[in-house]
Amino acid sequence: MVQNEIIESRIKNAAPFVGCPPDIIQGLLKNAALQNHKKGRLLFIHEDPADRYYFVVKGWVKLFRETLDGTQAVVDILGAGCFLGEKSVFQDGEYGYSAEIAEEAELVSLCTQDLKAELGKSHELALSMLRHMADQNKKQDMEIEHRALQTAPQRIACFLLRLVDQSQKGTVITHLPYDKTLIASRLGMQPETFSRALSKLKQETGIKVRGASVEVESVERLKNYTCQTCSSDFPCRDLLKKSG
Amino acid sequence: MVQNEIIESRIKNAAPFVGCPPDIIQGLLKNAALQNHKKGRLLFIHEDPADRYYFVVKGWVKLFRETLDGTQAVVDILGAGCFLGEKSVFQDGEYGYSAEIAEEAELVSLCTQDLKAELGKSHELALSMLRHMADQNKKQDMEIEHRALQTAPQRIACFLLRLVDQSQKGTVITHLPYDKTLIASRLGMQPETFSRALSKLKQETGIKVRGASVEVESVERLKNYTCQTCSSDFPCRDLLKKSG
DNA sequence: AGAGTGAATTGATCTTGGTCAAGGCAGTGA
DNA sequence: TCACTGCCTTGACCAAGATCAATTCACTCT
After folding, report:
1. How large is the greatest C-alpha to C-alpha distance in chain B, in angstroms?
2. Which DSSP category does A244 fall into?
3. Is the CB of A231 under 7 A from strand C?
4. Which of A97, A131, B15, B189 is spaced 20 to 30 A from B138 at the CA atom?
5. Phi-psi region for residue A92, left (φ > 0), alpha (ψ -120 to 50) or beta?
6. In this predicted structure, what is the pLDDT of residue B124?
7. Domain range B150-239, CATH architecture
């Protein structure tokens, strides 16, 4: 059971599970499995019956929905430390979106039935899951606000601010975590718009971009440019709380 | 304690409280009070410490946030059967938005401390609150999708479809629940855009509008016009579940 | 009935981002 | 090294919705 120990060490401190007694954690992990997936692999499809949910150890997963007329809307891109499909337990046992591997990923696959069962047993688990859901809620709230009020360059700046360690002074260098096209879809814009908006952002805030690496000369300047049209002060409240 | 009985009868079957044992309900209502408020009354402000949360018995409440540069973004408009401010319990005891009476309203004001205490005691309450939060989540998901993919006339049509009893055949007549300006802000558009989009909708789907009353000749035609750009079939899943 | 108020409509113009088309650039594989 | 592929960028044009300004409409108050 070496694999199980690895899984346990990675997952037991994840947001929805903190503070749970060990036997509940064991119950949750009863049917867990560590998996590796290649880019492009489809994990599940919107409205399919949900038997598994997942925890991201490494890599990136794209969540999206498809409309009747075929358009694809990206819901989120999840990285290490995030869960996906876990909310199906409260939503008639169906997935609320489709999920596809965006960059080669290592996942823990878990059983939704186990989650349901343990939720019924453990009050602690229910409470931390509640906190987790509330955080998700807040995150979506901000997403709605951002999409409504921010311009394309501001949305990119906001994305960058969330990448950099905000406590740092002076010049900071970061790397875009995945393709620009994917970032664009994550931010709800077209690749062309992303490209142009990034150019504008360079002019306006003095950042420098070469390939995937971004040099932010003054975090302050980025904040001034972006956070005016936001209802909460920077650093954003949801930054410290991870898990999708 | 006549007032308490009135309150209890109205609130005990609300989504987050269903299936709770009577003593827990009593605990929740310990510091409850029935209130009447005039239009324009500010209930609480974004990021203020949250001591009360509310249940809407009658009327309409506007939820919104204000950005640093003064723009107001409407989060939602809540009617009878909805809660507001209840999520503060999981969000560091702060309100996630400001709330203002949009149309003369009757509310039950409840104590967040009591909610917190009872959540700690009752596993049932935690579980139904969890379901409630999941529904909210789904609702927000749809909101994001709609704002991204629907045109202004489609958003209005979607709003109308949610007003009419969808099972009805033939011509249906509804009434807009509040001012057009308010509906516009709820749908994230300007009043002018709303007006023009409504005209277009009249042409395209044959609906008739006079003042606040709307005559829908064919619900089917409205669906065809709107639901193409949506990822879930009509009738939308979230329709049956109320409570904001 | 008439004045006054706020909501709603309409027109003209502008801005943002989307769409379509054409290249450019970087990494891969023979 | 050279083609091939996919990602990214750039340009020209378009469409949706925002903005600004001017009425018009509906309702209340006197």
Report:
1. 56
2. -
3. no
4. B189
5. left
6. 95
7. Orthogonal Bundle (1.10)
Low-confidence ranges of chain B (pLDDT < 70): 1-2, 237-244
Q: Which of A220, A21, A242, A221 is nearest to A123 (CA)?
A: A21
Give the number of C-alpha atoms closer than 13 A to the C-alpha of residue B29, restricted to the C-beta side.
Answer: 23
pTM surpassing 0.90? Answer: yes
Please, where are the H alpha helices in chain A? 2-11, 22-29, 112-121, 123-149, 152-163, 180-186, 191-205, 219-226
Contact predicate B223/B236, CB 8 Å: no
Distance CA B98, CA B85 (A): 9
As given in the structure block, the two tokens for residue B89 are 């319990």
Could you read off the pLDDT of A147-164 as tens digits, one per residue?
A: 999 999 999 999 999 998
- Token pair belonging to A27: 């119950």
Chain B hits for A131, CB-CB cut-off 8 Å, are 90
| Spatial contact of B219 and B162, defined as CB atoms under 8 Å apart | no
Judge: B140–A138 Cβ closer than 8 Å, yes or no.
Answer: no
ipTM above 0.85, yes or no: yes
What Å value separates CA B25 and C1' C10?
A: 54
Query: Which secondary structure element, helix H or strand E, spans residue A179, and what is its range?
Result: none
Question: Whose CA is closest to A52, among A27, A89, A81?
Answer: A89
Domain boundaries A2-147, CATH class:
mainly beta
Protein footprint on strand D: which nucleotides are under 7 Å from a CB? Answer: 7-12, 16-21, 26-27
Q: What residue segments make up the domains of chain A, in order of their start?
A: 2-147, 150-239
Distance B81 CA to C16 C1' (A): 39
pLDDT digits (tens, 9 = 90+) for B100-121: 999 999 999 999 999 999 999 9
* Contact state of A130 with B130 under an 8 Å Cβ cutoff: yes
Assess A68–B contact: CB distance below 8 Å, yes or no: yes
- State the nucleotide closest to A189 in CA–C1' terms: C17
Q: Given CB atoms, is B141 within the 8 Å cutoff of chain A?
A: yes
B145/A66 touch (CB, cutoff 8 Å), yes or no: no
